[in-house]
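Fig. S4 source data, part A: sequence.
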Amino acid sequence: MKRILEFDSAPPGWYARWRMSPQVTRSSPVTVWALVEDSESGARQIVGVDALGQWQGSLENDPGWDFVRYFYLSVDAGQPDDLFSPVQSQMEQVPPQR
């Protein structure tokens, strides 16, 4: 079992890329960097926790989301083409108030 020992906020521009199928990826903003420890081996690693709450090696990730890598894009470079933001998706589903 893995557990988060410490965490710190991630600066803007960091993303986690997940593979949905051989042709489809989704990138989600990394919200925090976390120090994770494996309780069996005692090994520690730094992982990024994305806006969905998923992180590399977590058993609670959504099925079908396979971690690919972390990457950085400067704010001036824009956002990845495969950006997935749960907050943005929920906002799009809410009809405008008049």
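Fig. S4 source data, part B ends here. The first strand starts at residue 2 and ends at 9.
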